[in-house]
Amino acid sequence: MRRNIVAGNWKMNNSFDEAEELVTDIAEYLEKNPVDDAEIIICPPFIYLEMTTDVSAESQFAVGAQNLCAYDKGAYTGEISAAMLAGLDVEYCIIGHSERRKYFGDTDEIIAAKIQQALKENISPIFCCGESLAEREAGNYKEVVQTQIEEALANLSADEMDNVIIAYEPVWAIGTGLNATPAQAQEMHAYIREILLENFSIAIANNTTILYGGSCNAGNAKEIFAQPDVDGGLIGGASLKANEFIQIITAF
Ligand code: 13P
Fold it and tell me: Which residues are known catalytic residues?
């Protein structure tokens, strides 16, 4: 179902105390100022998930993980399964982030398996795609994103696609302070809907939530979110400060 979403991806940041203060500040804001035109998702590191879901149980935001294991269960030392996340009331999971692709070897095949695991446990994948700077400069960025989407999602049913959120995150914009312009974001989001139309249906193309990520902050969120095919943002650095994150969740 298509809706406005702002999701905070904390990545590997914050001590436990900082994490607790940040979620508490956001929950206190939402208690006084409910946001009715956007869904808010906080994606902390694994070990803060339980604390975060405890706070979210009494608040308006939902909780997502940043990764999960491609396998069901068993001898996979250090991994966390989709079922374990579901048991903690985690409703979303970022899958296929470019940092996982780059530093941890997440291939299109592994990403597709992780999406299956999430869906099996009723966890909505926030599937990330996006081209590198070299790919943008070479002019083949649309093909790159098309391949990423088709490899990860093309085998899903229409019902399954209903639970998938796509985040377009150009790698050159992540953590660089160099966001895509609203026009660049719009061009790619519209193109992603064309890919969905080709592979699925007009309904899925129109009804899928597509977020923009990459140096999105309090200063540029409003203009980016105002683009017709942009449904919100996946926010990294700017989700680590309560004040700035609050300005972003109220930018619709
Ligand atoms: P920044 O907002 O820090 O650029 O990170 C974006 C991102 O990777 C969100 O997943």
Answer: 97, 169
Angle of helix 182-199 relative to helix 141-153, nearest 10 degrees, comes to 40
Q: What is the CATH number of the domain that holds 73?
A: 3.20.20.70
Atom from ligand 1 closest to the CA of residue 167: 10
Residues with CB under 6 A from ligand 1: 9, 97, 169, 174-175, 213-216, 234-238
Print the domain residue range for 96: 5-249
In the predicted model, residues of the chain with pLDDT beneath 50 are none
Based on the structure, what is the number of domains in the chain? 1
* Mutation to probe ligand 1, out of 169, 211, 212 (largest number of atoms < 8 A from CB): 169
Question: pLDDT tens digit string along 181-227?
Answer: 999 999 999 999 999 999 999 999 999 999 999 999 999 999 999 99
Task: Tell me which of 132, 215, 235 to substitute to probe ligand 1's pocket, judged by most ligand atoms within 8 Å of the beta carbon.
Answer: 235
Q: How far is the CA of 16 from the centre of ligand 1 (A)?
A: 21
Instruction: Say what the pLDDT of residue 67 is.
Output: 98
Ligand 1 atom having least distance to the Cα of 213: 6
Distance between CA atoms of residues 226 and 55, nearest Å:
30
| pLDDT tens per residue across span 54-72 | 999 999 999 999 999 999 9
Query: What does the block give as tokens for 173?
Result: 């914009």
8 Å CB contact between 126 and 7: yes
Distance CA 116, CA 110 (A): 10
Cα 98 to its chain centre, rounded Å, is: 11
